Here is the input.
Amino acid sequence: MRFIQDLLTLYILIIFASSVLSWFPTTSSSGGLATTKLVLARLTEPVLRPLRSIMPSARIGVDFSPFVAILILYVIKANI
Here is the structure.
């Protein structure tokens, strides 16, 4: 069980890092930042995409799906 909790913690950190990095613009599709953002997006999109489809969009242009995903993962982690 500890291993699963550690994996959930790692995934929570990945979602957090991806959402923070989304605030920084990239000027090209190559480079360290662009590559990191691409890898993190590929890791997080399978979880965030379904949440975005069921959540109402915020009119202020903020994506709350990472926040909701992290909350769900914390609940799962606490109940393992």
